[in-house]
């Protein structure tokens, strides 16, 4: 795989190969390539994590069997489970994509607690970063949203602090394809990737090709650079903020600049695992801190809401 040597050195320095790590493997080409690459680099103490979403019937079951064979092939540990994502999405009143992501992270947290390992490798790559950047840009998520996918982030799920590591974030899908072909690695194709209903697939198959055709040049690299700059700046600002806060005092918020208000509220919502945080949602909450505001409550996704009471903001 085409990985800059400095990134490999950085990976080994920050995450020594002798330690145990989780790795998310879906059976698709990206995660299969990452698994092979890590094993090739000497990462042998891995725990493959695979969640069967039960969205594609027999194909989903076949993915699970494929991953079982991979674990046996590389002689690594395996944690496998299944969940009805469609039913979960209906119950929580969220999109299938958001529900699948939440189910995966809940599964990762359970495995992390069971295996006493809080670091998980994910196979997101450069194209994923570009697509996520555009999705959040169109959603109006602000700088924090544009920096949502980073090489290393921390996320608390069910009182478990997970460290998410994305070693392939500087590697393009075309490089992964070359890696797969050169090493003749087998993987499972997910036919749903061609479905244009999910926003990400429309961005991938329609929006980016259209933009490149319109501008007459490839734009992925420039978007990728912008996303990387945003993530580095976000890392800097996050270091200046509290690690975690569950409630916010209204008076100090009122005294902040608008930019800092928005950044603080976005971080607060993200810490509470609120999905699809956009400009409108942040602005509705900002209205609650206005001293003249009569409304003391606003709705959030998943039947949750923010309430102002006794000079503080709460998520309920």
Quick take:
By secondary structure, the chain is an alpha/beta fold. The chain is built from 13 helices and ten strands.
Helices and strands: which structural class? alpha/beta
**Poorly predicted spans:** none
Total number of helical segments?
Answer: 13
Strand order of the largest sheet: 3-2-1-4-6-5
CATH superfamily of the largest domain: HUPs
* Residues in helix, %: 40-55%
CATH topology of the largest domain, what is it called?
Rossmann fold
Largest sheet: 6 strands, mixed
Rg calculated over all Cα atoms: 21 Å
User: What's the architecture of the largest domain in CATH terms?
Assistant: 3-Layer(aba) Sandwich
For the termini, the CA-CA separation is: 46 Å
The total tally of domains equals 2
Mean pLDDT: 89
What does this structure look like?
This protein is an alpha/beta fold. It folds into 2 domains: 5-125 and 145-192, Rossmann fold, CATH 3.40.50.620; 242-315, Chorismate Mutase Domain, subunit A (Up-down Bundle). Helix content is 52%, strand content 15%. It is built from 13 helices and 10 strands. The chain has helices at residues 5-14, 29-40, 58-74, 85-92, 96-115, 126-139, 142-146, 173-183, 199-215, 220-239, 250-255, 258-271, 279-288; strands at 21-24, 46-52, 77-82, 119-121, 152-157, 160-165, 248-249, 297-300, 304-309, 312-315. It has a 6-stranded mixed sheet with strand order 3-2-1-4-6-5. The protein has a 4-stranded antiparallel sheet with strand order 7-10-9-8. Strand 2 (46-52), helix 3 (58-74) and strand 3 form a beta-alpha-beta unit. Helix 12 packs across helix 13. The longest helix is centred in the middle third of the chain and has 20 residues, at 96-115. The N and C termini lie far apart (46 Å). The mean pLDDT is 89.
